[in-house]
Amino acid sequence: MTRLSIIADIRRNSYRAKMAKDETRAAKRMEQLRDEIRKHDRLYYEEAAPIISDREYDHLYKELIDLEMQFPDLITPDSPTQRVGGKPLKAFEQVAHLIPMLSLDNTYSEEEVKNFYARIQRLLPNEKIPVVIEPKVDGVAVSLIYENGRLRQAATRGDGNVGDNITQNIRTIRSVPERLRGAAPKLLEVRGEVYMDKHGFEKLNDERRKAGLLLFANPRNAAAGSLKQLDPAIVAKRPLDVVLYGTGATEGVDVDVHSEIFPLLKKLGLPATERWWVAESVEEILEAIHELDGIRHKFAYQTDGAVVKVNSFAQRERLGFTAKSPRWAIAYKYEAERVQTRLNEIVIQVGRTGILTPVAVLEPVFVSGSTVGRATLHNEDEIKRKDIRIGDTVVIEKAGEVIPAVVEVVKSKRPRDAKPFDFAKHIHGKCPVCGGPIRRDLQFVAWRCENLQCPAQTTRRVEFFAARTALDIESVGGIVADKLVERGLVREPLDLFELKTEQLAKLNLGTDEESRVFGEKNATKAIHAIERARTLPLSRWLFALAIPDVGRTTATQLARFHETIEDVANSPLLRGVLQYHEKRDDKEDAKEIADRLVQSGFAKPSKSKAEKGRGITTEVGPVVAQSVLDFFASAAGKKILRRIKELGIHPKSEKVSSKKAAELPLSGKTFVLTGTLPSMTREEATEKIEMLGGHVTGSVSKKTDYVLAGTEPGSKFDKAKELGVRIIDEPEFRKML
Ligand code: IVH
Predict the structure, then answer these.
(1) pTM score, two decimals?
(2) How far is Cα 220 from Cα 14, in angstroms, rounded to an integer?
(3) First-to-last CA distance in the chain?
(4) Domains and CATH numbers, the chain
(5) Regarding predicted confidence, which is higher, 524 or 511?
(6) 104 Cα: distance to centroid of ligand 1 (angstroms)
């Protein structure tokens, strides 16, 4: 060894020694910081008694982050910084629940609550049956699993048996401890709801409005939408919280009545329901339900009812379950909330097809989970019938996600000078947006703007074109569509395909005085979505074109039998349908056309006896056939066809050949959907059914083949039972698929 290399060696070693010392010191400090931050999280979130300022907290947090950047090996998975740490996922892993997550039977009357208690008294005669009354939280159901005090897994309810693994996302919620406090049981599964408080919800929507993104309808949607994000960094920015109301699988938990769970959860540092009542008679139950109704609006989370649960686990076990829900619990739903507010103005909105709809502009009020500033007044007749006047105090009702409506006027509060609202006079015989001519449309009991270039109509058409169920270009909805039309960048939906990133980036979403541009990042995203729309299948395009009478179902049916848009425009099948209906009296001709349609799979021989075996039922009826052919024969329709071609867009059918259509597994089957499905939306279920050849209709009749029922099914469920129609749930439906 040379002297030089010896010196180098010594230097390296002393450097290593120093590093090791640094690392030990860092490790120690990091542990301190983690404990300290956890303590402040607890003080802040659980005890609502912070002892340091937000600034000091941020300081500690930043110190920890800096050290973790310097010594990444020393990051522990339970570090408070790891709450936002995970990488975006490709998809959520599916995890089976240790115990199924069931739903509850709903009741809407006190009578039914009485019946519930009478029923369990009958089932457990001569016993005292204490029950717990607690809030029914209107959030997103989750299960959290702690093993030996550590958070191991968080999952959504999914179909009740299998849910999405959303552990990364739940870790971003600061009130969810990574470790339980004190002596923790071996296994503790806790269940509850993730929610967004009103304030956070409004702030989030404000930000989205400014960015031109679609708004969430209510806090629950916002919470659900947030939990569905695959990137935990996005979730971390959403103001989510959780409230827990029960346990699932447990080991080493020594509790035999439900009411003891709340203090236990609190003791372990978990955010639990803070108000509950124990009752032993119907009177006490109803009293608790009323008391809860009086205070529930003060909770940070939204509630839509009270849950009544048998307190003793032993009694629960003896009561057992029905097919869908436990016999030992019931949910009582409060009535839709109604509030009074002042109607400041009536404005006229112009819809996609030019229909003028009166809308009430209200003094903003918070009702059923969100702030309402507008309510639809439907049409001129409705305003007359309810005698709604500007300046009136009105009663607003909102049930869940339904668009708020004006229920009635509080006549006693009417200002003396309020005059009946004269719709015709108010609009001065012209479109309030473009000033174009209007016409009374008798079919829709409404006025209609006849100017196809009316900017309001164009905006609505662009929004429709870009909607999720159409071409799914989310980023050009709402205010962005408004501004694109207002600034003349878009005159019709297809203009979107000629937008340039630079143009979009510069788009001013604000006013001339206070400008606020769309920005490079949003613009790039939008252009990507627009490019993707080019490749979407024919069914989506047919729907997006907003052909009169063509909804999603019809669009899918048409796409199954045609390869391209031109094929639809010149469809011999649609012409056949018209000819068949024209010539029904001429047996020979009709028979020939009918045979041709049946052969193509576009029609089936009718079962109706009146037709004596001659008749057929076609995939679409003559009204739709006429409407589609008229649309493409019109000047506007021809222009659209030409333009699509020029833009180099060639939507193709995900075509199942027409012969095969008749052989599709659900071909000819009619479905009716009711209730909320555990793991798919109505649209998704409909899409699946239609892709396999089935139909979805709105009401149950003898002809219905299946009723697909989710939780909280409506009257369709009862009707199906009455008619003996087969009722299936999501797991069964999935099997069918
Ligand atoms: S107990 C087997 N308690 O409502 C009983 N559920 O319709 C399991 N919910 O799936 C549920 N607040 O997502 C229970 N205090 C509460 C609740 C509650 C809201 C949700 C939960 C459940 C659904 C039942």
Answers:
(1) 0.54
(2) 58
(3) 75
(4) 3-82 (1.10.287.610), 94-333 (3.30.470.30), 338-427 (2.40.50.140), 452-533 (1.10.150.20), 664-737 (3.40.50.10190)
(5) 524
(6) 6
